[in-house]
């Protein structure tokens, strides 16, 4: 091999190594550095401003929240859509609410999720919807959020802000979409996230199955659905399918824990066991 060919091959190898360092090693190193840095006072000010109950949280959970937010922000990509700006307020506000679901689950940080797409307001989602006959129609729906199984979540920023501003109405788009993310982390979303044993799945399906059936009966009562909803702590949107039931139950658990415990003690116990935190502590 002549000297010129050797130079070309060597420079190609050097370029490939540099590219690999730039693409794979540098982001990891940068992420680890960010995770190890102390939680910045600016970020804490955002969390305090956005989460009305933050100051009432036990110190242990505040520290856990800081660590999960750092981990989350070091590993997830935020993309602004339709002119939405991505700044620390957007990133920290979404991360703080999403991390409430994994507060006491160190090491678990939505591993299959990589991108959060943020729109300024509710967005139009188009999809092909099969009916009972198998006919597929193209439909568009206005959504505040959507969780995909391909590692993406879409949120509207004004819904995120509204959700954070009122943490006791039982509606929270971030908690809802990230509950879907936990549900579909290891496969199809079916209302049961990953649990650690066969017995746990059995108990989960007994409690969730019965509660889902009960909510569905209340919601489908043609004459009394509206009145039934006034009397029910779980939103009837949860009656549409088991995956929605888990997401709605999660919102209710974090935002109306006392009412959920009083009205649906077994459901409350399951969620308390799964999330390993007790939102009654800071209500
Ligand atoms: Zn949903």
Structure characterization notes:
There is one protein chain. This protein is of the alpha/beta class. It has 2 domains: 41-184, Cyclin A, domain 1 (Orthogonal Bundle), CATH 1.10.472.150; 190-283, Collagenase (Catalytic Domain) (3-Layer(aba) Sandwich). Helix content is 54%, strand content 12%. The chain is built from 11 helices and 6 strands. It has helices at residues 3-36, 41-50, 59-75, 88-100, 157-165, 173-183, 198-219, 225-230, 242-255, 257-263, 265-275; strands at residues 77-80, 115-119, 123-130, 136-143, 145-147, 152-156. A 4-stranded mixed sheet has the order 1-2-6-5. Strands 3-4 form a two-stranded antiparallel ribbon. Helix 1 packs antiparallel against helix 3 (59-75), helix 2 (41-50) packs across helix 4 (88-100) and helix 4 crosses helix 5 (157-165). The chain is elongated and about 85 Å long. It starts with a helix and ends in an 8-residue tail after the last helix. The mean pLDDT is 87. The protein binds zinc ion. Zinc ion binds next to helix 6 and helix 9.
């Amino acid at each position: 091999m002549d000297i010129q060919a050797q130079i070309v091959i060597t420079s190609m190898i050097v370029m490939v190594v540099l590219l690999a360092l730039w693409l794979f090693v540098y982001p990891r190193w940068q992420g680890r550095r960010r995770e190890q840095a102390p939680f910045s006072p600016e970020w804490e000010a955002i969390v305090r401003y956005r989460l009305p109950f933050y100051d009432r949280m036990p110190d242990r959970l505040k520290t856990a929240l800081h660590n999960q937010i750092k981990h989350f922000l070091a590993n997830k990509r935020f993309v602004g859509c339709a002119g939405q700006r991505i700044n620390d307020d957007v990133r920290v506000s979404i991360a703080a609410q999403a991390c409430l679901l994994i507060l006491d689950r160190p090491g678990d940080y939505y591993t299959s999720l990589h991108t959060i797409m943020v729109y300024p307001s509710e967005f139009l989602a188009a999809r092909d919807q099969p009916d009972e006959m198998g006919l597929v129609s193209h439909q568009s729906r206005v959504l505040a959020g959507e969780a995909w199984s391909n590692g993406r979540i879409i949120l509207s920023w004004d819904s995120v802000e509204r959700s954070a501003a009122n943490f006791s109405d039982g509606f929270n788009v971030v908690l809802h979409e990230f509950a879907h993310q936990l549900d579909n982390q290891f496969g199809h979303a079916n209302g049961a996230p990953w649990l650690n044993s066969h017995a746990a799945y059995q108990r989960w399906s007994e409690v969730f199955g019965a509660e889902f059936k009960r909510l569905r009966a209340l919601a489908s009562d043609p004459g009394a659905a509206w009145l039934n909803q006034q009397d029910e702590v779980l939103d009837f949107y949860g009656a549409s399918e088991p995956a929605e039931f888990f997401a709605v139950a999660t919102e209710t658990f974090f935002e109306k824990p006392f009412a959920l415990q009083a009205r649906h003690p077994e459901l409350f116990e399951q969620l308390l066991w799964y999330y390993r935190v007790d939102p009654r502590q800071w209500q």
